[in-house]
Amino acid sequence: MVSNRQKLLISFFAMFLITISSITSSIQLSYGAYAKAPLSPNGPTVNDDTLTVEKIADDLEFPTSMAFLGPNDILVTEKTTGKVMRVTNGIVNPNPVLDVPVANGIERGLLGIAVAKQPDGKIYVFLSYTESGNGVDGSDVTSFVEPLGNRLYRYEFVDGRLINPVLLLDLTAVPVNGRGEHNGGKIRIGPDNNVYYMVGEVGGHRTQAQNILTGPPPNGLGGVLRITQDGGIVDPANPIFGKGLPLNIYYAMGIRNSFGMDFDPLTGNLWDTENGPAAGDEINLVFPGFNSGWYQIQGFVDDDILEHGTTENDLVVFGSSQYADPKFVWDTTIGITALKFLNSHRLGDEYANNMFVGDINNGLLYRFTLNEERDAIFINSTYPGNIDLLQDNEVDDPKENQPLIFAQGFGGITDIEVGPDGYLYVLSYTGSLFRILPISDSIKPGSPPVVSAEEETLRNQSVPAVILGIDGDDSYSPNPIEINVGQTVTWYNGDTISHTVTSGADGDPDEGTLFDSDAIIPSQYYSLTFNQAGDFPYYCIYHPTMVGEVVVDTPNSDDSDSDDSDSE
Ligand SMILES: [Ca+2]
Ligand SMILES: [Ca+2]
Ligand SMILES: [Ca+2]
């Protein structure tokens, strides 16, 4: 309903109105689900006084996954460039070991990597990426070229290069809904030496693999796929889901999207993280034949958060496939990503074989312990804070997260690995690679806080506001925030998860046009100067029920404004 002329006026007005302070480094608009937590200005920290966080490398470009070739020798995939970079003793080699052409819109790109050393000394490196349709990086964005596919390749690592590519899997990357989302991409080598590849539903595909009874047969999307390292079918005489491609390569189905999976070093069980739409981020035990329930069920089946009214009796069944509830659920999504078991005692015995998971919205690293049988999550007395509310294996309110938070401030986390040194490595989309290790083993001094004097002054002169958490029009305090033209408001996030300060309201076509903070991580600030009078409603993109308003008045203008004021 907005004319082009109005749009022009609005965007001009937006430029005129807003001065983003130096506290926020980017004016790029986030628009919702893909908003990512920035790096904490103080650097990441770990909530155990005996441990510390070291930065290993910097200046990677949107890194997505990593795999170790050896001690202090790491291959890292870059999402948008399609480059595989090599990080040796903390130095990023400027020459990539491989550079492939990728479609890179939204969640497309070079996504996954796994290394498998062979008995004969050969080193196989498996890569998953959304291959560009015309050999040019990003042509899906710049010239709407359809990608060739979501592809799994095997390379050989020889003399510092990746050579001899063999295409093992070729799945569609063309979305049904026009968006480049849910391409999954993680790769693991299982205890059986087979290759496990996670792929999402790729932009709204609706087949029987998404539990649509009347849908077309599965097309390879929306599950964990398993093949041999040569691209063969595992045990073709006894497939889990059924005979013939692609059914005979499914290991699990009914998965919306995932950015993390790992094998429990003690049991060999596969676990994954899965992303819910607006609710229901999950951790699952992925047994052979696991059906996670999407598109009929997300989160616990009894909660029916999708409001489809479906139960496990309504799901598609193949062979011995079986639905199972998640082992842990976040009612409010956190953008859950990587998952890794710490198969080491190097951080202390209490953390050995714990499960660690990351998120993209908050930059938090969460810790989980399992029960004795290791088939369920059991939060025990070694956690700080109140664990009573976690005994239902569900974070119903974000404040329940607190005991689970092992470390914070990484910026959105894309991968977690354990090095040959037994330390925990954490990769951030911001371009940095960190590791967590005992202070006594650390060779680098802790990083000092990086808050400039200018920022500090701005904060002190600002009108303070606090983000309290998800609570309707009590989510931001005070509400409304009443200021005069030219004043700056600084919001402090006092909650345990990230929130945004985004102009407009949910569903408003102009949401975020005037201002958009992107993710404000816990304990961080966001400042905005208002140079125009008016009422400015705002909300949180992640949690749209959170609403507030800034009322900007013109001081000493009683004459001109008196009529309006009196009429209220
Ligand atoms: Ca490239
Ligand atoms: Ca599920
Ligand atoms: Ca709970």
In short:
The protein is 7% helix and 34% strand.
CATH architecture of the largest domain: 6 Propeller
Distance between the termini: 29 Å
CATH topology of the largest domain: Neuraminidase
| Classification by helices and strands | mainly beta
The biggest beta sheet reads: 6 strands, mixed
- The CATH homologous superfamily name of the largest domain equals TolB, C-terminal domain
Task: Give the overall pLDDT as a whole number.
Answer: 90
**Shape label:** globular
Work out the helix count: 4
Number of strands: 38
Q: Quote the beta fraction.
A: 25-35%
**Considering DSSP H and I runs of 4 or more, what fraction of the residues is helical?**
under 10%
Identify every distinct bound molecule in the structure, by name, code or SMILES.
calcium ion
Task: Specify the oligomeric state.
Answer: single chain
Radius of gyration: 24 Å
- How do the strands line up in the largest sheet? 13-14-15-16-20-21
Q: According to CATH, what is the class of the largest domain?
A: Mainly Beta
